């Protein structure tokens, strides 16, 4: 750090920084006193004070222009990788347990009918079932072509 | 990536140059003749080496057959259209696939281990030639018989091939012949069988249904990658899976059609499921590159019929047949599976890169200059290629082997920079449906196997089940079983220029008559009458379908005898 009387002290930089700081302080104080204007807060923001107009959007997810609310608490504890994994794992078990409980409740569920099964099948499944049936039929000897008649003779007795 | 081409130029290249006229027909015909001769030459080599030769001496290996076939084609090509066309050459390198091998097997001379045939194998020979971009290709499957017996001073096979291989040969032969006739009927629609007439012309779906019904009656499956497609100048399907072809017209089979077939077999109603199957991308930038069956065969077009079949009679369980790519690493495990390097490469002209090595720059220049958009093998770049069949062959083979070494390094840089793409070697595999159904597939159909050459819109093999190609590949690793496959391919022109006939450029009785086989099955199903009618029309010379086959050149007998003394 350059000393107080140093020739190459970054005077401009220091001055402008302090100037900006004092300006910001003033601005913050002013904004605390003055009420929000219509344009100072986005129309769709949670804190918006403007009246709801008939032309306003009623969409559920709307860009409000606000940054998410700051979390007030500051913590220095970090989540270790190991603990994060553990939490995730436990969560998985919890979910599984819940699912199992739900299933027990639905024990009286109907067995899938054939039509439902067919509906659920993709094109690939259908192709595969068809081809399996071809294999089965072949195993039963249904495609066996037998020798017929006199057969076919080509060529003559010569090399 | 798309290249910017002016609309006028595109019209010249894609439309005007594809209109049939005498000069175009002549280029096609000359190419067809060369392919026919090449096929006959290789068949004669195999016959003399495996069937007619006395037991002493080693037979010709697949490596040598491939290079001899390619050399033969190049030698023939050098004699036609000299200085008249800018480009001519091999449109698809000679590949020789045994049993379960399905695609791209054309080992280089320096491949580890030689490949030979044994009795009972089925061997598929495929080759193709282009003159000025007009391409004709052929594939034919023949049978390797055990040593024959002598009848009337001629050595002949003792009996026909039986069993599942014979079924597949019968089915693919009948399918190909029927399709040749069917395409020919585009010229004379009044002769169409009633059943097809009622469908209103020859649609893509007609072609598919006929082939499927033939396959069904022989308990075969049409392999993924089979197709009946229109051929245009420079667009003969040589770079499928690398470059998307706009305005693709043709029927293509893949695994999804097998899935559909199985679903249709199921006893309960399945309209609901099949209804939303048809949601296919329609508004993409290159939507015309996605094959659909909604087209009509028109006169004046050239088609390649390429049918591959595998029999599933040997399996008691329901399953799918699919293709598995192998690379030079996947087989190197304790199971000692078949393993080979892919040797057929194709230039991807959309990609540019400044190369580091001098050898790779040299190789790239050579590739761009000589092979254009067609696939090639590294041995084609050798100074000693093509092999002169009149000179000492073993010495030339050694020289080519030496040349290969120098270009190997350059090739790997080109490959790493994606300037060229290698065509994978594929095996035919059967996979039980049960294994697919019980496997867990949590990621769904996301994930595309980039090594698998597929046409646009066909990236997901099993769209209903949501199985991606990567998932299928991993399933194949554990549960796949090899199945032999048969391939018959031919190129035909529906000629509307002079006296309306169908010109069969390749295949047919002139070069690739079927081997002696007997299947226990007979033709049946919904289309049997139409198929029989087409068969009769093909026989009828006066009022039926006029088919003009390309004759092969006369083979010099001594030449093939000389190549026998290879080792």
SSE blueprint:
The complex is a heterodimer of chains A (about 160) and B (about 575).
Chain A (H helix, E strand, L loop, with lengths): L10 H23 L47 H25 L8 H7 L2 H17 L12 E3 L5
Chain B lengths: L6 H8 L7 H30 L10 H16 L10 E11 L2 E3 L18 E10 L2 E10 L5 E3 L2 E3 L7 H21 L9 H5 L5 H14 L2 E3 L4 E5 L18 E3 L2 H11 L5 H5 L26 E10 L7 E8 L17 E4 L10 H13 L5 E2 L15 H24 L3 E4 L1 E8 H6 L30 H11 L1 E2 L3 E10 L5 E4 L12 E3 L8 H12 L7 E3 L7 H6 L5
Parallel strand pairs in B: 18-20
Antiparallel strand pairs in B: 1-3, 2-15, 3-4, 5-6, 7-10, 8-9, 8-10, 10-17, 11-15, 12-13, 12-14, 15-16, 17-18
Q: Can you characterise this structure?
A:
The complex is a heterodimer of chains A (159) and B (567). Chain A is an all-alpha fold and 159 residues long. Helix content of chain A is 45%, strand content 2%. The longest helix of chain A is centred in the middle third of the chain and has 25 residues, at 81-105. The model of chain A has no long low-confidence stretch (mean pLDDT 81). Chain B is of the alpha+beta class and 567 residues long. Chain B has a domain at 23-277 and 294-316 and 483-562: Creatine Amidinohydrolase (Alpha-Beta Complex), CATH 3.90.230. Chain B is 32% helix and 19% strand. Chain B has helices at residues 7-14, 22-51, 62-77, 164-184, 194-198, 204-217, 255-265, 271-275, 358-370, 393-416, 433-438, 469-479, 528-539, 557-562; strands at 88-98, 101-103, 122-131, 134-143, 149-151, 154-156, 220-222, 227-231, 250-252, 302-311, 319-326, 344-347, 376-377, 420-423, 425-432, 481-482, 486-495, 501-504, 517-519, 547-549. In chain B, strands 7, 8, 9, 10, 17, 18 and 20 form a 7-stranded mixed β-sheet that branches. In chain B, helix 4 crosses helix 13. The radius of gyration of chain B is 23 Å and the shape is globular. Chain B starts with 6 loop residues before the first helix and ends in a 5-residue tail after the last helix. The model of chain B is unreliable at 560-567 (pLDDT under 50). The interface between A and B is large, with 28 and 49 residues.
């Amino acid at each position: 750090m350059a000393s107080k009387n140093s020739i190459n002290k970054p005077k401009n930089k220091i001055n402008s920084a302090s100037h900006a700081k004092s300006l910001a302080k003033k601005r913050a104080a002013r904004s605390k006193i003055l009420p929000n204007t219509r344009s100072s807060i986005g129309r769709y923001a949670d804190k918006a004070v403007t009246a709801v107009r008939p032309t306003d959007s009623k969409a559920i997810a709307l860009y409000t222009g606000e940054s998410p609310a700051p979390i007030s608490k500051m913590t220095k504890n970090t989540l270790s990788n190991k603990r994060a994994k553990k939490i995730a794992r436990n969560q998985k078990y919890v979910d599984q347990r819940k699912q199992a409980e739900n299933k027990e409740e639905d024990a009286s569920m109907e067995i899938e009918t054939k039509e439902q099964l067919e509906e659920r099948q993709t094109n690939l499944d259908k192709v595969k079932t068809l081809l399996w049936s071809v294999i089965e039929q072949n195993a039963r000897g249904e495609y066996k072509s037998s020798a017929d008649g006199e057969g076919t003779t080509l060529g003559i007795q010569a090399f | 990536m798309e290249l910017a081409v002016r609309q006028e130029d595109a019209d010249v290249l894609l439309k005007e140059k594809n209109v049939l006229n005498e000069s175009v027909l002549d280029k096609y015909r000359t190419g067809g003749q060369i392919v026919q001769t090449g096929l006959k030459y290789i068949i004669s080599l195999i016959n003399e080496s495996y069937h007619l030769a006395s037991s002493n001496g080693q037979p010709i290996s697949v490596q040598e057959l491939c290079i001899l076939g390619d050399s033969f084609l190049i030698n023939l090509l050098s004699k036609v259209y000299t200085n008249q066309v800018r480009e001519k050459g091999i449109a698809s390198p000679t590949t020789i696939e045994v049993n379960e091998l399905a695609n791209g097997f054309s080992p280089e001379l320096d491949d580890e281990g030689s490949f030979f045939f044994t009795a009972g194998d089925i061997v598929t020979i495929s080759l193709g030639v282009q003159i000025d971009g007009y391409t004709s290709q052929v594939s034919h499957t023949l049978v390797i018989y055990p040593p024959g017996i002598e009848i009337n001073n001629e050595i002949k096979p003792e009996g026909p091939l039986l069993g599942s291989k014979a079924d597949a040969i019968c089915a693919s032969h009948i399918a190909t012949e029927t399709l040749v006739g069917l395409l020919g009927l585009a010229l004379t629609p009044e002769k169409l069988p009633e059943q097809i007439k009622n469908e209103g012309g020859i649609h893509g779906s007609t072609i598919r249904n006929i082939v499927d019904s033939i396959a069904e009656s022989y308990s075969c499956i049409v392999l993924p990658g089979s197709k009946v497609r229109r051929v245009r100048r420079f667009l003969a399907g040589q770079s499928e899976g690398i470059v998307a072809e706009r305005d693709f017209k043709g029927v293509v089979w893949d695994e999804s059609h097998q899935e559909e077939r199985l679903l249709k077999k199921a006893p309960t109603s399945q309209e609901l499921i099949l209804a939303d199957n048809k949601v296919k991308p329609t508004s993409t930038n290159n939507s015309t590159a996605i094959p659909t069956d909604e087209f009509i065969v028109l006169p004046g077009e050239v088609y390649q019929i390429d049918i591959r079949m595998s029999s599933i009679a040997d399996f008691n369980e329901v399953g799918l047949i699919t293709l598995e790519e192998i690379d030079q690493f996947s087989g190197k495990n304790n199971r000692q599976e078949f393993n080979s390097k892919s040797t057929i490469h194709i230039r991807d002209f959309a990609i540019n890169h400044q190369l580091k090595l001098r050898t790779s720059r040299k190789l790239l220049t050579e590739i761009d200059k000589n092979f254009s958009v067609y696939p090639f093998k590294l041995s084609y770049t050798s100074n000693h290629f093509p092999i002169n069949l009149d000179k000492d062959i073993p010495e030339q083979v050694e020289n080519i082997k030496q040349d290969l070494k120098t270009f190997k390094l350059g090739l790997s840089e080109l490959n790493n920079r994606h300037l060229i793409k290698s065509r994978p070697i594929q095996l035919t595999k059967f996979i039980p449906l049960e294994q697919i159904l019980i496997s867990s597939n949590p990621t769904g159909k996301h994930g595309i196997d980039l090594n698998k050459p597929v046409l646009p819109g066909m990236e997901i093999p099993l769209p209903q089940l949501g199985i991606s190609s990567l998932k299928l590949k991993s399933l194949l690793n554990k549960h796949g079983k090899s199945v032999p496959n048969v391939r018959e391919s031919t190129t035909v022109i529906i000629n509307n220029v002079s006296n309306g006939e169908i010109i069969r450029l390749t295949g047919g009785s002139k070069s690739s008559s079927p081997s002696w086989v007997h299947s226990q099955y007979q033709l049946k199903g919904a289309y049997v009458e139409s198929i029989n009618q087409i068969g009769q029309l093909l026989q009828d010379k006066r009022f039926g379908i006029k088919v003009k086959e390309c004759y092969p050149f006369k083979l010099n007998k001594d030449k093939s005898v000389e190549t026998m003394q290879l080792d």
